[in-house]
Design goal:
Distance between the termini: 42 Å
Helix content: 25-40%
Strand order of the largest sheet: 1-2-3-4-5
Oligomer: single chain
CATH class: Alpha Beta
Order of helices and strands: EHEHHEHHEHHHEEHEHE
Strand content: 5-15%
Largest sheet: 5 strands, parallel
Number of domains: 1
CATH topology: TIM Barrel
Structural class: alpha/beta
Number of helices: 10
């Protein structure tokens, strides 16, 4: 795939003035950075309206980096919804564990079961791949970003029931697997099954359930629903593979093809990374240690990533050796 270990990371120059870009590249050269991931959160930039795509700024960024000799990992830009999408199609916003339908905000904010989200995210991936497939600086595709979270809306409830019918075929089999005679939980119709959340089976948050079988299966369902989102986008990318290669899913990486991946999060519990692994051409993950005493946990997470593809090389897509904005406590150097 490459003849050296690539060194770089996410680069988001669309978020600051052009005058800074030359200084960025001077710093890259001093640090011997040779690879940048572009466009991770660019959905609102590259698709300002449902029927409008605009790649002018991303084109400029791509050519600036390619001209500077940088290799490019191109993201599909679907890691966060644009405001227009959430306002035009509010059903793409998630319903949380307490049963509240969210309005636009933050990221990880899309319902994975929404037909609108699936259609438009795959369409954006198609447009990105159509534009940049075959670019000489391209070394990989980056789909979505750090998949995670959960939705408990009516669309997810309906999709969960369909997932259960595929898994168990009959209500008798489902009731047996869930030991549904406990607390009079025997189901006599598929429509009686609802997502397990604070309004149904849980108390004191998502880790305390009265009915373990349904909670475990909802975790599995959510992981599979997000995997379907990833597969949608990967299939859209592969349609533009030079030479027209259109492999069936799950698609192993073929020498000469541009690999497709997404960034995992070590031992993140809600997503079944082993079930996802066959659909990634290479495993990759983001390492943000919570403190300066977690070396063993970090080593274990690296080992997990290596094992996902039977010992094949994996990529570390993001990490930090210093403060991390999302942590309650940042690493502090202790006196020797």
């Amino acid at each position: 795939m490459t003849d050296k270990i690539l060194f770089g990371g996410d680069y988001n120059p669309e978020q600051w003035p052009r005058e800074v870009w030359d200084a960025d590249h001077a710093a890259f050269d001093l640090a011997h950075i040779d690879t940048v991931t572009l466009g991770v959160f660019d959905w609102a930039l590259t698709q300002p309206a449902e029927d409008t795509y605009d790649f002018a700024l991303l084109d400029e960024i791509v050519e600036k980096n390619a001209g500077a000799g940088k290799k490019i990992i191109m993201a599909t830009g679907t890691g966060a919804l644009p405001p227009w999408l959430a306002h035009r199609h509010p059903e793409v916003c998630r319903t949380d564990f307490e049963g509240r339908r969210h309005v636009y905000g933050q990221r990880h904010n899309a319902c994975p079961s929404s037909p609108v989200f699936r259609r438009l995210s795959a369409a954006l991936a198609d447009q990105v791949a159509r534009r940049y497939a075959g670019h000489p600086a391209l070394v990989a595709w980056h789909v979505g970003n750090e998949y995670g979270g959960a939705c408990y809306c009516d669309l997810c409830a309906e999709a969960f029931r369909a997932w259960l019918r595929d898994r168990y075929s009959t209500l008798d089999a489902l009731n047996h697997a869930w030991n549904a005679t406990f607390w009079s939980h025997t189901f006599t119709g598929w429509e009686q099954v609802v997502p397990p959340n604070a309004l149904s089976e849980h108390w004191r948050g998502p880790n305390h359930t009265a009915f373990q079988g349904i909670t475990l299966d909802y975790l599995r369902f959510t992981s599979d629903a997000m995997l379907a989102n990833y597969v949608d986008e990967k299939a859209a990318i592969r349609r533009h593979e030079p030479g027209g290669r259109k492999p069936a899913e799950p698609a192993g990486w073929v020498r000469g093809a541009i690999p497709v991946t997404t960034n995992f999060m070590g031992m993140y519990r809600p997503i079944d990374y082993h079930r996802w692994a066959p659909h990634l051409d290479l495993a990759s993950w983001d390492n943000y240690p919570p403190d300066d005493r977690s070396q063993a946990r970090t080593a274990l997470a690296h080992d997990l990533m290596r094992g996902l593809k039977d010992g094949a090389p994996f990529w570390l897509m993001e990490q930090t050796p210093t403060v991390t904005a999302c942590r309650d406590v940042n690493p502090v150097k202790r006196p020797a």
